[in-house]
Design a protein that fits this description.
With 446 residues, the protein is α+β, with helices and mostly antiparallel strands. The chain contains 13 helices and 27 strands. The chain has helices at residues 3-15, 37-56, 72-78, 80-83, 155-160, 162-169, 214-231, 280-289, 315-326, 361-375, 388-398, 410-413, 434-444, and strands at residues 19-21, 33-35, 61-63, 69-70, 85-90, 97-99, 104-107, 110-112, 119-121, 128-131, 134-137, 147-150, 175-184, 199-209, 240-244, 256-264, 267-276, 295-297, 302-304, 307-314, 327-332, 335-340, 351-355, 380-383, 402-406, 415-420, 426-430.
Length: 446
């Protein structure tokens, strides 16, 4: 994988309506991105698969949707107000600001500027701490402000609602609480497309267990989440690896942590982290809020504070990994064919219907009948705006697994031509069999 591939992916995403620059007509904002029509569809597919796998199909995990703006004391308890900082250094030449741990070290106290390659002496240009939290005024008036914060992770809303969920659901441990939602970090070192953003979306589970069961649960979730990316998302296993954190890498609250890394176009980096957070979170929230967040063990007749195993995934990074994994260039008849070989169940459209002759009313009627019959049951697209080669190219680039062409012969033989995205093989089938054919093909690759 190369940076050239990254630029091609960014170009394709913009050209085909997956991802646009945020506030683009006003010059854009650094590391703020908007998802276009196809990007919104793919994001929803990702979230639906995750939610269906862990909330709808399991009895030990429930869902939550907590608020984005949270009380200042939440982040005092979590440690974010004091400890959620980056060490930033300014380049003396171009004046741009960088996280010092992301710069190339070229000598004792010397670093290379990530923009203009100027040498930065960290003794002369002292790194400074900057908090990544985004503050907002939740007061009704400007002259008497009352500040809250945009959450930097969805986890804290789960911790503060733990007892509410436990009491309202009447469930016993182990119990997982799952949430999908936006989080915000005032990142300075940004870039690499949607890999690191100031506004992003997370899919997190906080899995509460009795302390003696924590290690076993942690190992379970590491394997479970790795397998999810291969079996449910369709990423190539050779592009994934596990990396366990060393002791000096662990967050202050973590007992252990493993990253699932993906081989992005710019290299290997974190796709998801699975952490054993111990009982730090509930203990601290109980201390600051002065509320009892412990559980009662019926067997030992003792109270205890649960340990938490946290599989924390990013929707945007999963999206990026899926596009990167699916992107292919193939030479066909001396020309380069760009194709997204998406898992069919994740594709924005699972089928596209083409009409070759728009001036035949009876052909238009047949094509639209097929389209609406399919669209009622699965995601489909209708396109009659170009020659067949151009139509195929559009659908290849957005990952549509099957294309159905209605031609003049369809009026007499009641058949259509179906083309497979990956093999480009074509098959003539009866009109009445179109939906079942598509359904069978998609289900084969679920």
């Amino acid at each position: 994988m190369t940076e050239d591939k990254l630029s091609k992916i960014v170009s394709l995403c913009r050209r085909r309506g997956f991802v646009f620059g945020g506030s683009e007509i006003y010059g854009g904002l650094s590391s703020i991105w908007d998802y276009g029509p196809l990007g919104a569809k793919l994001k929803k597919r990702i979230k639906d698969v995750w939610w269906d796998t862990y909330v709808e199909k399991r009895n030990d995990i429930v869902g939550l949707d907590s608020s984005i703006i949270m009380h200042e004391d939440v982040f005092k308890a979590s440690g974010h107000l004091e400890g959620f900082t980056d060490s930033l250094v300014d380049c003396p030449h171009c004046k741009k600001r960088f996280r010092i741990d992301k710069l190339e070290k070229i000598g004792d106290n010397l670093y290379k500027c990530g923009h203009c390659d100027t040498k930065i002496d960290s003794q002369k240009n002292k790194p400074r701490k900057f908090n990544l939290m985004l503050k907002t005024n939740v007061s009704a008036t400007e002259d008497e402000p009352y500040y809250g914060y945009l959450r930097p992770e969805t986890a804290q809303g789960i911790f503060t609602n733990f007892i509410n969920v436990l009491n309202s659901t009447h469930k016993k441990l182990p119990l997982g609480i799952a949430q999908i939602g936006k989080a915000f970090r005032n990142e300075v070192t940004t870039g690499s497309f949607i890999f690191r953003m100031k506004e992003f979306e997370q899919m997190e589970i906080e899995y509460f267990v009795k302390p003696p069961e924590a290690d076993k649960a942690y190992q379970y979730w590491v394997k479970e989440r790795f397998d999810f990316y291969v079996s449910k998302i369709g990423l190539k296993q050779e592009n994934l690896k596990l990396r366990e954190h060393q002791k000096d890498e662990l967050a202050h609250y973590a007992k252990s942590c493993t990253d699932i890394e993906y081989n992005f176009p710019f290299g290997w980096s974190e796709l998801e982290g699975i952490a054993n957070r111990g009982n730090f979170d509930l203990t601290e929230h109980a201390r600051v809020s002065k509320k009892d967040l412990s559980c009662f063990d019926e067997e030992t007749k003792e109270k205890f504070v649960p340990y938490v195993i946290e599989p924390s995934a990013g929707v945007d990074r999963t999206f990026f990994a899926i596009i990167s994994d699916a992107y292919n260039e193939e030479e066909v008849n001396g020309k380069v064919r760009v194709v997204l070989k998406l898992k069919p169940s994740l594709a924005p459209y699972q089928a596209a219907i083409f009409l070759l002759l728009k001036n035949k009313p009876e052909l238009v009627e047949l094509a639209k009948k097929i389209f609406y019959d399919i669209k009622d049951k699965l995601p489909a697209s209708y396109d009659d705006t170009g020659a067949i080669g151009k139509l195929y190219r559009r659908q290849d680039e957005i990952g549509t697994p099957l294309c159905i062409t209605v031609d003049i012969e369809s009026l007499t033989d009641k058949k259509v031509t179906i083309r497979d995205r990956d093999t480009m093989k074509q098959e003539r089938i009866d009109v009445e069999r179109v939906f079942e054919y598509i359904k069978e093909k998609v289900n084969q690759n679920k």
